[in-house]
Every structure is written in C-alpha cells, then in structure tokens.
Specification:
The protein has 271 residues and is of the alpha/beta class. The protein has twelve helices and eight strands. Helix 6 links the parallel strand 7 and strand 8. The longest helix has 21 residues. The two termini are 30 Å apart. The C terminus is likely disordered. The structure holds NADP nicotinamide-adenine-dinucleotide phosphate (NAP).
C-alpha cells in the first residue's frame, strides 16, 4: 500500500503523524510539496519520501490525499489527471471543492472521498465529516475512515451537500468555542479575577464540560438541567442567555456559515 500526499502542510502533517503512530499501519508514504524546507523537515522527522512534483509522488500510489489550499487544487488536478486511474482512491481534505468539480478534471474516474476535518485534528482531537462518491468501494471507504481517524473521530454523510453544514458546525466550530471562552475570560476579569486565573478557569471549564458530556450517556440538555438548581447561580446566568435568545443567535451563526460554504462551493454532487 502506498499513500501519496499532495501538499505537506498542517493537515498533511497531522495525518502523516497519526498514520505513522498507528502500530497497524505499514503504508509507504510519499509527499509532494514545492517548498524544499518543508520536504527536508518531513524527511528529517519521518520515514517518508518527498518530491517537488505531484506526479512523482503519486507514482504507484493506491491512495492520493489532496491537502493543498482550495485555490491550488485545480492546478494540481490538471497536473495529476493523466496519471490517475479508475482503481485509485482520492481523498480530498480541501474545503469547499465539490466532487463534481474534481471529477470533471479527473477523467479516469477514480473513487473520491471528500472530507471536512477541523483544526483540533492537528493535535489528534479533530472530528471529520466524510462523503464518498458512488465509485467508492466499501474497502476504499474504510481506507478513508482509517486515515481520518488518525486525527480524531469521523462521521459519514449520505449527501455531499451536508458537508457545508458539517463545515458550519465543526469546521468553523472551534472559533465559536474560542469566542465563548474569550467572553467568559473577559467577564471574569471585569468582575475582579486576575486575567491568568480567569483564562485558566474558562479553558478548563470548556475542556471538562466537553469531556463530561462525551463520557455521559445523558444528553447535554439533561446535563445542563442537572447543574441548574432552581433559583441558583447557574439559573440566573441561563435566564440572561435565554432572554438574549442565545440558541437563536447560534442558529443564525451556523446558518450563515452553511450559506457561505454553499456560495464558496457553488453547488456539489447530488446523491
Ligand atoms: N488546517 C485545518 O485545520 C484544516 C481544516 C479543514 C480543512 N482544511 C483544508 O486542508 C487543506 C490544507 O490545509 P493546511 O492547513 O494543511 O494548509 P497548508 O499548511 O498551507 O498546507 C498546504 C501545503 O501545500 C503546499 N503546496 C502549495 N502548492 C502545492 C502544489 N502545487 N503541490 C503540492 N503542494 C503544494 C504548500 O506549500 P507552500 O506553503 O510553500 O505554498 C503547503 O505546504 C486546505 O484546503 C484546507 O481547506 C484544513
């Protein structure tokens, strides 16, 4: 098994690191990146072969991972198209480029899986939405899932259009949590806490609440009610959030992000 990464940046590095840390993984890894310093760094750190040209990196590869910026992708596809074949699996982590657009360029009709990871993938705590084109076999879907699981959790979608909602919920989601944590830090500081303590309290509360919800069988609404005594401090805070229509604001934010994703993608493969 040979896996080629086109682009050796943040996302490729997270996936390669995850793959090589997996004891069952025996794939040979080849990376294409135009930057000599990036290639030197990758080859110094891991047993991977790096190339300046995408066509050299994909030679003999069963799986090709597209990990370049969206504006770079059309040029990369033009370059590799003559050297791709129907049996190959293409996994794209590139935001916003639909399978229909990739298929138009990759005339050999390889199987394509489109994925939407998020930034915590860089520390192995990501979550990735996956969508497979109809040309993908069960084995190829599993290969894509195994790869993305090296960077965290995965979920499969049965409609490509839903990747825009995944982008809005989890792709952009870390920024919403950073904003909430920021607002909690600022409020704590304004009310008298030293800034470093307010920051530590907000960050660990976010981490603890998320870990607790993930470990619990109860849904988050139940967990919220369990820590909200009638007439208590939490209730006083939640009353303010509800009065300001916190849930409605989040709904508008995620709807706006979904809409923006659709505009940027300009439509996708229908299923
Ligand atoms: N980072 C995330 O958390 C995240 C989350 C979701 C989706 N994504 C998607 O993942 C993709 C990669 O993101 P990233 O954060 O890894 O970007 P990145 O760190 O900029 O990595 C992209 C790499 O591709 C290289 N490159 C440029 N032109 C190339 C070419 N023609 N052939 C091969 N490599 C080329 C770049 O080199 P130079 O720097 O020298 O140009 C860079 O090293 C993007 O499409 C993004 O939408 C990323």
């Amino acid at each position: 098994m040979k896996i080629a990464f086109i682009g050796g940046g943040n996302m490729a590095t997270a996936l390669i690191g995850g793959l090589l840390a997996s004891p069952r993984e025996t794939a040979r890894i080849q990376v294409a990146d135009p930057n000599p310093a990036t290639r030197k760094q990758l080859e110094g750190k891991w047993p991977v072969s790096c190339f300046s040209q995408a066509t050299a990196a994909i030679e003999g590869a069963n799986t090709i991972v597209l990990a370049v910026k969206p504006q770079i992708l059309p040029g990369v596809l033009t370059e590799i198209a003559p050297f791709t074949s129907a049996g190959q699996l293409i996994i794209s982590v590139v935001a916003g480029i639909p399978i229909s657009q990739m298929s138009t360029q990759l005339t050999a009709s390889p199987a394509i899986v489109r994925s939407m990871p998020n930034t915590p993938a860089l520390i192995g705590l990501g979550i990735t939405g996956l969508y497979a084109s109809s040309a993908c076999s069960a084995e190829q879907r599993q290969t894509a899932q195994n790869l993305m699981q090296t960077a965290g959790e995965t979920v499969w979608l049965d409609q490509e259009a839903l990747l825009d909602v995944v982008t809005a919920v989890s792709g952009s989601g870390p920024a919403y949590f950073f904003y909430l944590i920021e607002a909690m830090q600022q409020a704590g500081t304004r009310l008298g806490l030293p800034a470093d303590i307010a920051s530590k309290l907000a960050l660990h509360t976010a981490n603890g609440a998320s870990a607790m919800a993930l470990q619990s069988d109860a849904d988050v609404a139940d967990l919220r009610q369990r820590v909200t005594s009638p007439g208590g401090t939490t209730q006083a805070a939640l009353n303010q959030l509800k009065a300001a229509d916190f849930a409605g604001v989040i709904d508008s934010a995620i709807s706006a992000a979904t809409q923006r994703g659709r505009e940027l993608a300009g439509g996708g493969e229908k299923s």
